[in-house]
Amino acid sequence: xxxxxxxxxxxxxxxxxxxxxxxxxxxxxxxxxxxxxxxxxxxxxxxxxxxxxxxxxxxxxxxxxxxxxxxxxxxxxxxxxxxxxxxxxxxxxxxxxxxxxxxxxxxxxxxxxxxxxxxxxxxxxxxxxxxxxxxxxxxxxxxxxxxxxxxxxxxxxxxxxxxxxxxxxxxxxxxxxxxxxxxxxxxxxxxxxxxxxxxxxxxxxxxxxxxxxxxxxxxxxxxxxxxxxxxxxxxxxxxxxxxxxxxxxxxxxxxxxxxxxxxxxxxxxxxxxxxxxxxxxxxxxxxxxxxxxxxxxxxxxxxxxx
Length: 306
Known about the structure:
CATH topology: Farnesyl Diphosphate Synthase
Strand content: under 5%
Radius of gyration: 20 Å
């Protein structure tokens, strides 16, 4: 059966529920959260940045992230037929080539919306769209290699929205502390994205998608993922202490320590516990992001020591 068509639905329009399933609202949270962190870290008064922050959150989540999900599902429809046949395209709920059409339409809507928010946001959004398509679509298809693909998504989902927000609400280039912390949390997101690869090892191996579990085995990939999450946070803690923000550094340190405790259980059986750790550890990770963002907000109004 051609998995781009529903045999009982000859080219009809997709249902709203199928479109929503394609855009995956549950995945919108990371870039929306990162954009909020960027806006907060800018140090601008909340009232003055409310509209730009709200519009940017919508752009980062439903529009840009939704675009990336639609493109990914279209170009992954064959591997999804093996790993997750219940997904909207291989199951036939998304008829014909509608998955591709929606990804293209969402790209255009995202670009037009970004243009309304100013040149900085527009350029950043074009970069994000380029990453979204390059991640899934040939000939680049970054996701074919777990090191490259997860790195590209981490920077697109965390670093880029954070920096874009800080720029959008101030109209200026972000400060160096903002740039550095945004980059560190984007690097750490590489490990978070590796957690998603444990559930699809069989299909990824068959389709020659070289995720970290396929490349290095499940246990080694789990150790790499944990290191990728922990080490950037350790650097964040050190920087917060260096910038005379001990309360914020301590808070991020406590959240990191709890993550490491949970990692011990995850590492004992990474294939079975990847979903569990993702639900627990990721929440702690992004909580640390917000704590750090408020630390930068405080730093924006005080001089650096020494």
